[in-house]
Design brief:
Order of helices and strands: HHHEEHHEEH
Structural class: alpha+beta
Largest sheet: 4 strands, antiparallel
Helix content: 55-70%
Number of strands: 4
Strand content: 5-15%
Length: 192
């Protein structure tokens, strides 16, 4: 019926809509309304519109000398993961600073490993994580890049859920330990 590339476009469109629906049903509805106004034979326009709409604070710049497009963005899933990882380090009494390196490694794995779309990137974390991507002018392929990006955001979400459970378990252990210490101290202080 359609060629393979068109099928990839449709599958990515559905995947983006599903992600948006999970994140914000109102934004997903806006995307569907926008889709109705676009030419159905060219879903790429909708994919790009929907994909970049996932990020509320994305900015684009260009480097004329290198012919690069530079995207700077942050996302709440990445920020949530970083905050949870830093909190877990604090609870466990570690302050290694590995949280930023972990975010860097995940971004590198998903965005640089799957495609050659990213020429260079950096991750800066202060209060929130800010990622700078330099998109390759020669090798930028949006479909695999967008798919990898969605995979990365879903991974951050899954890992955040895992970290929340670890934090909950650690806090329970600490509460039990405190209760035992208080009970032991009270027993020791009572006159016989």
């Amino acid at each position: 019926m359609y060629d393979y590339e068109y099928e990839e476009d449709v599958l990515l469109t559905l995947r983006l809509l599903k992600y948006l629906q999970e994140e914000s049903p109102a934004r997903a509805q806006e995307a569907v309304e926008a889709f109705k106004t676009l030419v159905p034979e060219d879903p790429y326009e909708f994919i790009e519109y929907t994909f970049w709409d996932i990020f509320t604070d994305i900015t684009f710049a260009s480097d004329e000398a290198e012919e690069l497009t530079i995207a700077t963005f942050s996302h709440r899933e990445i920020n949530r993961f970083y905050a949870l990882l830093a909190r877990l380090e604090l609870i466990e009494g570690q302050q290694t600073g590995a949280s930023q390196k972990k975010v860097h490694d995940i971004v590198e794995f998903f965005l640089c490993g799957a495609t050659y779309s990213v020429f260079q990137f950096s991750v800066q974390v202060v209060d929130a994580s800010v990622i700078n991507l330099q998109l390759s002018p020669d090798c930028y392929d949006p479909l695999p890049f967008f798919n990898s990006f969605i995979d990365m955001l879903l991974y951050f979400r899954q890992e955040s859920q895992r970290l929340e459970e670890l934090i909950r378990q650690d806090e329970q252990k600490q509460n039990i330990y405190r209760e035992r210490r208080l009970r032991d101290n009270d027993t020791w202080r009572k006159p016989i």
